[in-house]
Amino acid sequence: MRRLHRLVAAACVASAALFAHEASAQIKVGAVLSVTGPASFLGDPEKKTLEIYVAAINAKGGVNGQKLELVVYDDGGDANKARTFATRLVEEDKVFAMVGGTTTGATMAMIPVFEEAQIPFISLAGAVQIVEPVRKWVFKTPHTDRMACEKIFADLKRRNLTQIALISGTDAFGKSMRDQCVGVAPKAGIKILHEENYGPRDSDMTPQLTNIKGKAGVQAVVNPGFGQGPAIVTRNYRQLGIAAPLYQSHGVASKQFIDLAGTAADGVRLPAAALLVASKLPDSDPQKKVVVDYARTYQEKTGQPVSTFGGHAYDGLMILVGALQRAKSADKAKVRDEIEKTKGYVGTGGIVNMSPTDHMGLGLAAFRMLEIKNGDWTMVADSGS
Question: What angle do CA 266, 247, 219 make, to 5 degrees?
């Protein structure tokens, strides 16, 4: 009988120890970001945002009584490095979920790794090919490049500008958005008269823009791209005295683009999230509190202006946290299912409603058409969808 009591007592102690370990165990969240390199103005605010909000969540007790542990790697904008780090996150770090993938190229390189490992992956990159076709374990927070084309074309039509030229970056995002714009142009009533492109290391786009300037009938120019390339395009555009309106993509939606382009940025239009004009939103806007609070927190913690890219990271983390809370479990499959069921999440990018056929959950109305005036963002009138 005494031996039985000892066995029962030992079992109770073991169970208590196991429970205590599970209760204190951390939920590892991986992030592969372009903190340095040509996409650093995207990746750096993403990293800072994740660090700020993981610390804030842990200070309040974590999620379901468990602290979050953030594991970050810098791919420097290199897709091959991103895949290597993704493998490390799976095999060595044993992450529970992934919030990251700054660029389209890095994201596409990492998708097979997380799909095979069956780990929830919320990307912060823009191309529609990340979520079309739908992959079971892959989601994204930013608006797609196709949406950017549609938003730009709608604004062009309002201005009675229907004949355009494209000058596109040859990076993964630039190529993807170019293809999306070409695909949706006929339906939008837009005719593409001429195309040019540039490489990620090009430092002068004057020859390409000179070709565009000499093309008869061009009423506006659209630049699918991200990084420093669009800033160079913008400066060269003004130097050549091209009068036609210039549109950029949401891939340059940060103050750093304005700083790089200088006064040449004035007059440029682009679709972007409400975050860039947080204080200018009407009080009735459902996003206002979220974007104002995020902007204030980010600026206070970093001393830097907000960009939509940090906002994408905020949304990705909060969507994951919400799924963990609803699942009441650290079971990857259950959390994946809850991410897919995200409804009515009010984030910096818009109001998110995901489904089994939509792993982004944003409509075109989540985009605002902005124009840069005097070095600042302004909302274009009648830019709703």
Answer: 105
Burial of 27 (0-12, 13-18, 19+ CB in 10 A): buried
CATH class, 12-143+288-354 region: alpha beta
β-pairing, 68-74 vs 27-33, is parallel
Written out in words, the top-level CATH class of the domain with range 146-272+367-379 is alpha beta
How do the domains of the chain map onto residue ranges? 12-143+288-354, 146-272+367-379
Per-residue pLDDT of the chain (385 residues), as tens digits, is 445 445 444 444 444 443 334 444 699 999 999 999 989 999 999 999 999 999 999 999 999 999 999 999 999 999 999 999 999 999 999 999 999 999 999 999 999 999 999 999 999 999 999 999 999 999 999 999 999 999 999 999 999 999 999 999 999 999 999 999 999 999 999 999 999 999 988 999 999 999 999 999 999 999 999 889 999 999 999 999 999 999 999 999 999 999 999 999 999 999 999 999 999 999 999 999 999 999 999 999 999 999 999 999 999 999 999 999 999 988 999 999 999 999 999 999 999 999 999 999 999 999 999 999 999 999 997 654 4
| Tokens, residue 195 | 């195309």
